Amino acid sequence: MNTLFKVTNKISANGQAVRHIFSGVKKLQQTQEQVDAAEATNTRLPLTTLSEDEQAMKETVARLAQEQIAPHVREMDNDGKFKSSIIDLLFQNGLMGVQIDTEYGGAGCNFMTTILTVEEISKVDPSLGILVDLQNTLINNVVIQLGNEEQKKKYLPRLAADTVSSFALTEPSSGSDAFSLKTTAKKDGSDYIINGSKMWISNSDLAGIFLVMANANPSAGYKGITCFIVERDTPGFTINRPEKKLGIAASGTCMLTFDNVRVPESNILGEFGKGYKYAIEFLNEGRIGIGAQMIGLAQGCFDATIPYTMERAQFGKPIFSFQSMQHQIAEVATEIEAARLMVYNAARLLERGEPVLKEGAMAKWYAADVAQRACVKCIDWMGGVGFSKDFIQEKFYRDVKIGSIYEGTYNIQLSTIAKQIEREYKN
Ligand SMILES: Cc1cc2nc3c(=O)[nH]c(=O)nc-3n(C[C@H](O)[C@H](O)[C@H](O)COP(=O)(O)OP(=O)(O)OC[C@H]3O[C@@H](n4cnc5c(N)ncnc54)[C@H](O)[C@@H]3O)c2cc1C
């Protein structure tokens, strides 16, 4: 699939720049060149500096989101499901395989490009933002980094071209305490037989490929947890009806049940018994993606609100002109910018191979907190109409709550940050 030219042809008015959008290797080099040049002259680039390709991608995804996704967002939220034409649009434009190498049909871009993609999509629809985020930051990256050549050849082209995927860790009795999970995988000849259930699994209504954490050696405790690839049509595997939720309604979140689900040993991803380690590592990356979803959501809500405050007049003046309004607006704009810098910094650290345990948790926690405040304020600034379903702010307000729950709750992020601080100060 030549995603580069598909994007160029479909949505770019800026042909020259966009032609490089998906040349990921080149983009990485370009970013490195910029960094090297900055280091050579002893200057530092602002965190918001994007390479030419990253900038072009950001603009292109923004245009796609505004022109082709935005008109369908209300309908998808009301229906509680995505339109298949919108899912097709994401695949056709390379947004579901941003970091998958071109050799496997992906766009071959860097992590920052994934972050920008999730941010731009979430400005318009945070439900679709989580679909794009999970596919890219969790599932694709796990297969890219842990898959053997056979697994990469089998799964990456599908993930880039047409197959939605899910990451299944949480269970009815294990959420924050994820590694007390009870789903088992018992060896039977050269197969494993999976039994148990998973809860709250995003995008599982559509997914064709599932990464499932199951304990293949319960006597070893969490060190028996192993990551299995399970295909949707495997006998004994049931995807239950989507939960009815407060927000991100179009993203299908289902319970999964495994009743003697047989998978070959070759479906183990990475090493036997290392599933807990992989979950920790990849969720560190994933949290930066949730941060991107949250800053996109906050900015989308803010952008939809400010023009109203300039048009709406009370006491003979636009409500924007009141100093108490301006101060609140300035505070929210500053907080969104601060959250964006934390998310971008965590993404750049990750690209440079540096640890992001603390920075990812901080970025996710802060971005979710800022986004919640931003949505509350936007509704306040709109007055009565902010409370109405005729305006998009109420949807952002419902969608934002999930940021403090999935991929680690508020408390879990804060505990992670505190643990790191303790380590740093004890050393
Ligand atoms: C819409 C949605 C989509 C999701 N998508 C996925 C998915 O795709 N894949 C997946 O595997 N999971 C997914 N999840 C699950 C999600 O990651 C969990 O809900 C989350 O980790 C919290 O677990 P829990 O719901 O069991 O809450 P609990 O762990 O029961 O927590 C309840 C409360 O107790 C607090 N708490 C728990 N332990 C501690 C502690 N040690 N210290 C302080 N406070 C604590 C929590 O902070 C929280 O406030 C999703 C959840 C939702 C709602």
Automatic annotation (TrEMBL):
GO terms for molecular function: flavin adenine dinucleotide binding; short-chain 2-methyl fatty acyl-CoA dehydrogenase activity. Its main location: mitochondrion. Residues 166-261 form the Acyl-CoA oxidase/dehydrogenase middle domain. It is found in: Mitochondrion matrix. Residues 51-161 form the Acyl-CoA dehydrogenase/oxidase N-terminal domain. Belongs to the acyl-CoA dehydrogenase family. InterPro entries: Acyl-CoA_DH_CS, Acyl-CoA_Oxase/DH_mid-dom, Acyl-CoA_Oxase/DH_mid-dom_sf, AcylCo_DH-like_C, AcylCo_DH/oxidase_C, AcylCoA_DH/ox_N, AcylCoA_DH/ox_N_sf, AcylCoA_DH/oxidase_NM_dom_sf. Pathway: Lipid metabolism; mitochondrial fatty acid beta-oxidation; Amino-acid degradation; L-isoleucine degradation. Keywords: Acetylation, FAD, Fatty acid metabolism, Flavoprotein, Lipid metabolism, Mitochondrion, Oxidoreductase, Phosphoprotein, Transit peptide. PROSITE patterns: ACYL_COA_DH_1, ACYL_COA_DH_2. This is Short/branched chain specific acyl-CoA dehydrogenase, mitochondrial. Its EC number is 1.3.8.5. Pfam families: Acyl-CoA_dh_1, Acyl-CoA_dh_M, Acyl-CoA_dh_N. It comes from Zophobas morio. It catalyses: hexanoyl-CoA + oxidized [electron-transfer flavoprotein] + H(+) = (2E)-hexenoyl-CoA + reduced [electron-transfer flavoprotein]; 2-methylpropanoyl-CoA + oxidized [electron-transfer flavoprotein] + H(+) = 2-methylpropenoyl-CoA + reduced [electron-transfer flavoprotein]; butanoyl-CoA + oxidized [electron-transfer flavoprotein] + H(+) = (2E)-butenoyl-CoA + reduced [electron-transfer flavoprotein]; (2R)-2-methylbutanoyl-CoA + oxidized [electron-transfer flavoprotein] + H(+) = ethylacryloyl-CoA + reduced [electron-transfer flavoprotein]. Homotetramer. GO terms for cellular component: mitochondrial matrix.
